[in-house]
Design goal:
This protein is α/β, with parallel strands linked by helices. The protein has 15 helices and 14 strands. The chain has 2 domains: about 170 residues, Rossmann fold (3-Layer(aba) Sandwich), CATH 3.40.50; about 170 residues, 3-Layer(aba) Sandwich (Rossmann fold). The strands form 3 sheets. A 6-stranded parallel beta sheet has the order 2-1-3-4-7-8, with helices on both faces. Strands 11-10-9-12-13-14 form a 6-stranded parallel beta sheet, sandwiched between helices. Strand 10, helix 10 and strand 11 form a beta-alpha-beta unit.
Length: about 400
């Protein structure tokens, strides 16, 4: 089978990009041909022969605004790619904002079945997170995308928020919903949320993320520190985690990642006078795996509807337990008291209790990590994921 993978980034910028690359490699290892449509970037690690000329999405110029809605270059590059590669199916990830829904009419012109993995909530929320002013929000999914402009959901900017809301209306007109033959939700939570807001049950299937075989590692060592890995943003609960660390003694917290709240949270750590919180910046590859392997546990204190939580699987794979908030799809991964601990999102006291328990029960944490690894091997393996993805491909192709 020849699979066309479509994603804005051809390198790892976040969890969805990690999956885009991993699932592509999984398909290649199983004998399939994979071609790529991404935006042009010197960091790309996949074939960029058909890379789309994009723009700096974090600081666009006025001339870039039309490209945010519709990319003539993406259509041109896609047509060339299809003529040469002749894909059997197109697998979309995050394409809006750079590649844009302009590609749908080309895919339909060549009668190529389209599937999409839903890594976030863009179909329901213009800013993709279903968060407004730091709190979970479903206004747009129930009453229209104009709410995002009214409440200035995109960086508190009226202009940015209005453009984002208009783009969501435009995307739907261009086929964001009807031109995709089947959606793959990364969790039952995402699937149920989409169905709740009008998506037919027959058009969406849960296909949980997976962990690569080479990430698994047995680990009997007691960890030395607590670890957070992810974007450093308020909706990820990092602020709550820092406040909880003020109630934790004799163990350090390493914060791995970058994000718009990093500087502010570093200042808060200094203001509070915490000496046991250290920001390490972005890490990846073996360096990140080594950090996970040396941790007592991984903490994911998200305060939004987390779609899945790939870092939780990576932690399990290395026999490390997790502490996670009861938000979104994470409760489908973590079993409280067995392979990790759950707490109510935003609850500093519950989180500090969980952190202190892990720090003072390190051998039990090791045993919990082993339970997590068993779960990852059984339910979130590459082979299981491959079979589930192929079932969706074959369904839309009609095999």
């Amino acid at each position: 089978m020849n699979v066309l993978q479509i994603n804005i980034y051809g390198f790892v910028r976040g969890g969805s990009d990690r999956y885009f690359i991993d699932v592509s490699e999984l398909l290649i290892r199983n004998g399939h041909k994979v071609s790529y449509l991404t935006s042009a970037n010197e960091k790309n690690v996949v074939d960029s022969a058909y890379a789309v000329n994009g723009f700096e999405i974090d600081s666009p110029s006025l001339a870039d605004i039309p490209k945010f809605f519709y990319s003539v270059d993406a259509r041109r590059k896609l047509r060339k790619l299809i003529e040469r590669e002749r894909p059997d199916v197109a697998h979309l990830h995050i394409y809006y904002g750079q590649i844009t829904p302009s590609i749908f009419s080309i895919l339909k012109e060549y009668d190529i079945p389209v599937v999409q993995t839903l890594h976030e909530y863009k179909l329901l929320c213009p800013v993709s997170s279903m968060v407004r002013n730091g709190r979970s929000c479903e206004l747009c999914s129930k009453g229209g995308f104009w709410h995002a402009a009214w409440h200035r959901c995109n960086r508190r900017s009226l202009l940015r928020s209005t453009i984002t809301a208009l783009e969501s209306y435009s995307s739907n007109l261009l086929g964001a919903k009807y031109a995709v033959d089947h959606f793959m939700a990364v969790s039952d939570f995402v699937r149920d949320k989409m169905i709740e807001h009008g998506m037919p049950k027959t058009k969406i299937t849960t296909v949980h993320n997976f962990v690569r075989d080479d990430v698994f590692a047995d680990n009997d060592n007691e960890g030395r520190y607590l670890l957070y890995v992810g974007r450093v943003e308020k909706i990820k609960g990092v602020g709550t985690l820092i406040r909880a660390m003020a109630l934790v003694t004799e163990v350090d917290l390493y914060v791995v990642g970058t994000g718009e709240a990093k500087e502010e949270l570093e200042q808060e750590v200094a203001r509070i006078g915490l000496t046991n919180v250290k920001f390490l910046g972005f890490k990846s590859g073996q360096e990140l795996r080594d950090l996970i392997g040396g941790a007592i546990c991984i903490i994911t204190p998200s305060e939004w509807f987390e779609t899945f939580g790939l870092v939780l699987l990576e932690s399990f794979a290395q026999s490390r337990p997790v502490i996670a908030s009861r938000m979104g799809g994470m409760t489908e991964i973590v079993t409280d008291g067995v392979d990790g601990l759950l707490f109510d999102a935003g609850n500093v006291d519950q989180l500090s209790d969980a952190l202190n328990w892990m720090a003072s029960h390190r051998q039990q944490a090791v045993e919990m990590g082993k339970e997590g690894q068993n779960k990852a091997r059984l339910h979130f393996s590459a082979s299981k994921h491959y079979a589930e993805v192929m079932r969706v491909y074959q369904k839309v192709i009609g095999v």
